[in-house]
């Protein structure tokens, strides 16, 4: 079935829908204008800037344009190029720096050459529209609104928002996760994961030090909200009269079934992403240290190994397999992955419940979910890990023997 590809926006539709119910006329008008503008833009992925020759393609070269509050991207004016001086416009420079930090993260940490892996140029557009309450990736370029100044502030001020949106491009050029239901929620979660990792990498923060918030800077100071989402505590990013309570679930038992429509957030892609978000956070804390190292690599390789319709269970299984390929069977990294998914209600396929419980306990002793003995990795844990690895090998061998016997009948 042919589908119009949605624009990947950082502000989920349920928040804008809440603003439509505001008693403040200005707030309502800004929200409605944002929704109508986004609807007009949806599917218009052939819109391109008229300055294609300004920065040569390749090497992730950056160019930032100023829309001057217009909505027609080809009419935007060149504001800063890769070889040009800094701009007098703070929004331009923030966008330029955010594009560069994200590009450098993918290049230095994951050995990826820009968004498409082939040096794709990075074009950004600032001051898009009037009081436009969003920022989005449309498949080719990054576009930033200024916010309405009442609820949302200027969107270039959040590095994780920039990295989140650019990561939609990475997903598009790897797994191509369909933007609906569980695959769409994974799409959103992957963007949150690497949006947070880019911020942590730039600040040199460990998993324990990071705030794990997405879009903490997008609200004006008068709004009682921590951020758009919390990866550490889905469902607790905000709770106020304006937006209501953060609807993200943190466990499969709370999964939200919504229709695959614009009003239904394409099956709740911005809502159910809380489940895999928490799984990544738990993995990162379980492994310890810098989350962009082992956990980030496991998630990145799992993304590359995924497909258009990959669901939560398949992705969880892939992260477990990739942890083994990268760090070994029964490794602390694999234990952390297993325990994290189990904590959010997803059991890794093929791992017997008894082995899963033992491994979860081992991960807990390593400082992960359900930990009892703190973050140390003592001799007892090493011995337990080896025993669990041996048991898993025996179970795997037995399963293969059974399969062979069945095939011989």
Automatic annotation (TrEMBL):
EC number: 3.4.24.-
Keyword list, A-Z: Hydrolase, Metal-binding, Metalloprotease, Protease, Secreted, Zinc
Domain Peptidase M4 C-terminal: 175-346
Listed InterPro entries: Metalloprotease_M4, Peptidase_M4, Peptidase_M4/M1_CTD_sf, Peptidase_M4_C_domain, Peptidase_M4_domain
Recorded superkingdom: Bacteria
Pfam families attached to this UniProt entry: Peptidase_M4, Peptidase_M4_C
Keyword Metal-binding in annotation: yes
Residue ranges, annotated region (Disordered): 362-381
Cofactor(s) of this protein: Zn(2+)
Cell compartments where the protein resides: Secreted
Domain Peptidase M4, chain residue ranges per copy: 88-172
Main location as per UniProt: secreted
Class of this enzyme: hydrolase
CDD domains to which the protein is assigned, alphabetical: M4_TLP (cd09597)
Family of this protein: Belongs to the peptidase M4 family.
PANTHER family: NEUTRAL METALLOPROTEINASE, PTHR43579
Function recorded in the entry: Extracellular zinc metalloprotease.
Descriptive protein name: Neutral metalloproteinase
Source organism per UniProt: Streptomyces prasinosporus
């Amino acid at each position: 079935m042919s589908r119009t590809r949605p624009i990947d926006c950082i502000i989920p539709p349920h928040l804008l829908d809440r603003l439509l119910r505001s008693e403040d006329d200005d707030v309502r008008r800004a929200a409605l204008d944002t929704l109508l503008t986004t609807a007009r833009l949806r599917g218009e992925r052939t819109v391109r800037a008229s300055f294609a020759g300004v920065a040569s393609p390749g090497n992730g070269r950056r160019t930032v344009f100023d829309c001057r509050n217009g909505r027609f991207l080809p009419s935007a004016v060149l504001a800063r190029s890769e070889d040009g001086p800094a701009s007098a416009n703070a929004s331009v420079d923030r966008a330029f720096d955010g594009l560069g930090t994200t590009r450098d993260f993918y290049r230095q940490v994951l050995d990826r050459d820009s968004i498409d892996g082939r040096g794709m140029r990075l074009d950004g557009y600032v001051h898009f529209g009037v009081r436009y309450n969003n920022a989005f990736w449309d498949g080719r370029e990054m576009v930033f609104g200024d916010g309405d100044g009442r609820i949302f502030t200027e969107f270039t001020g959040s590095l994780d928002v920039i990295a989140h949106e650019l990561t939609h491009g990475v997903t598009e050029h790897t797994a191509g996760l369909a933007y609906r239901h569980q695959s769409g929620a994974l799409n959103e979660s992957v963007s949150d994961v690497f949006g947070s990792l880019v911020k942590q990498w730039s600040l040199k923060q460990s998993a324990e030090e990071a705030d794990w918030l997405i879009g903490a800077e997008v609200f004006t100071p008068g709004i009682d909200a921590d951020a758009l989402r919390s990866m550490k505590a889905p469902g607790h990013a905000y709770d106020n009269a304006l937006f209501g309570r953060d609807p993200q679930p943190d466990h499969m038992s709370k999964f939200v079934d919504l229709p695959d429509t614009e009003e239904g957030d394409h099956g709740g892609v911005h809502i159910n992403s809380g489940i895999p978000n928490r799984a990544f956070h738990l993995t990162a804390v379980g492994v310890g240290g810098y989350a962009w190292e082992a956990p980030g690599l496991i998630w990145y390789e799992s993304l590359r190994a995924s497909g258009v319709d990959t669901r939560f269970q398949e992705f969880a299984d892939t992260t477990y397999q990739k942890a083994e390929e990268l760090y070994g069977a029964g490794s602390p990294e694999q234990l952390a992955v297993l325990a994290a998914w189990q904590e959010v209600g997803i059991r890794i396929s093929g791992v017997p419940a008894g082995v899963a419980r033992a491994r979860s306990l081992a991960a807990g002793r390593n400082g992960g979910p359900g930990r009892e003995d703190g973050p140390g990795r003592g001799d007892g844990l090493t011995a337990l890990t080896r025993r669990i690895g041996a048991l898993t090998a025996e179970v795997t061998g037995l399963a293969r023997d059974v399969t062979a016997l069945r095939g011989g009948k």
